Amino acid sequence: MEHIVIIGNGISGVTTARHIRKNSNKKITIISGETKYFFSRTALMYIYMGHMKFEHTKPYENWFWEKNNITLKKGVINSVNTANKLLAFTNGETVSYDKLIIATGSKPNKFGWPGQDLEGVMGMYHKQDLEKLEKYAPNNKTCKRAVIVGGGLIGIELAEMLRSRNIPVTFLVREDSFWNGVLPAQESAMINKHIKEHHIDLRLSNNLKAIKADENGHVKSVIIEETGEEIFCDVVGLTAGVTPNIDFLKNSDIETKKGVLVNRFLETNIKDIYAIGDCAEQQKAIGQRRNIEAVWYTGRMMGETLAQTICGNKTAYNPGNWFNSAKFLDIEYQTYGWVFSEKNKKENELYFQWKHPKEYKCITISFDKDTHQFLGINTFGIRMRHEIFDKWLTEKRAIEHVLEYLADANFDPEFYKLYEPQIVAKFNKENNKKIQPKKKSWKRIFSKT
After folding, report:
1. Given the DSSP bridges, would you call strands 331-337 and 349-355 parallel, antiparallel or unpaired?
2. pLDDT at 56 (0 to 100)
């Protein structure tokens, strides 16, 4: 019986295993060094904040794996012998495979800062990071201050977590505005203001120089690169992005760059070896997508796709239109298609922007200046329907069509205030148009044409 070994039990690896099992009786082994059972990584913050317990983050009961004849093995792989199809664990054990799937995810970036491996320094990606946070920052008496390094999505989540226990937070962001390499200026400025309103000490244009230790090898303080200022703290969160977790492949024949190089079928250069999820790097970018995408839903899609190939139906990975969502403290964020920061947008792109005069609600719509083709939208504080924007992007609709039927895309609950008339009125005024926004139509929303 063919033996499929999957290294990594995150969303990518587990999705692959489940779909292989749905379509075959192949022998499946999942290896993980983090936890035995699959859990929702994005829910870790809610455990610390008291909204959930760890067992609530596991989508499947512990008996699920045995019932579905999927073997779980806890351990860390040290090396891959591709010639003999053999994996070696750090404890000396070995396991053979017929097909190997690498789904080892990411690890926090470290840039050689002095003190980056001290006690009290952590990322916020693994369950072990959560355990460290509970150890070193259980409350504001044990942890008098935390410093977060890096202004991305994980950083803002960690800041929210710490503030939920009233721990003072200093947030070091090297850019001159939060996440302005991704967000347009209007949106980035709004997030800056929102962060400060949550009593977070936001330090823009500030880089970490070093982390200093006390006499016990624990974090004592950080030094700011630009000013030399010393900030005393008990915890340092390193959230300056992530990198593929593939160190164990250094001495193998598997081709790597930043991640494990794969083609559109998620195949590596070695027959019967594949890579998916955060650790996979496309040899050629798919459209405007990045070669490496550390995103939950793309990992799931890769797992579903690869399972088809493993079961004899060779299938290319086709993620479709880009989308993502996140939360900046109290502000919900969604993006569909492509909306870049001003410094990264293309020559043919124009932006239409609307912002609520008082509340944290705004949108940015990107469109082609010549054809008016809708290219993408960012929404803050207004929930939108993924399937509607996906349809409009695929159909290459004009921005005028998007605005006319924008109410169909609104996903906010009944009785929420709607802002489509104000949004369309601003576009009409700026562009000398006479678009009349349509009322929401369930018939249109659920229409397949």
Report:
1. unpaired
2. 94
Class of domain 121-240 (CATH, top level): alpha beta
Query: In whole angstroms, how far apart are CA 280 and each of 42, 105, 246, 258, 287?
Result: 19, 8, 10, 9, 16
Show the tokens assigned to 360.
């944290």
H or E element, residue 32 = strand 27-32
pLDDT at 435: 93
pLDDT at 442: 80
CA 294, 295, 301, 307 dihedral sign is: positive
pLDDT score at 413:
74
Which CATH topology does 3-107+243-310 take? FAD/NAD(P)-binding domain (3.50.50)
DSSP secondary structure letters along 268-335: -SSTTEEE-GGGEEESS--TTS-SS---HHHHHHHHHHHHHHHTT--------S-EEEEEETTEEEEE
Pairwise CA distance, residues 449 & 360, whole Å: 34
Residues of the chain short of pLDDT 50, as ranges, are 449
Same fold, 3-107+243-310 and 323-445: no
pLDDT at 446: 80
Helix axes 11-23, 296-310, angle to 10 degrees: 30
CATH of domain 323-445: 3.30.390.30
pLDDT at 448: 61
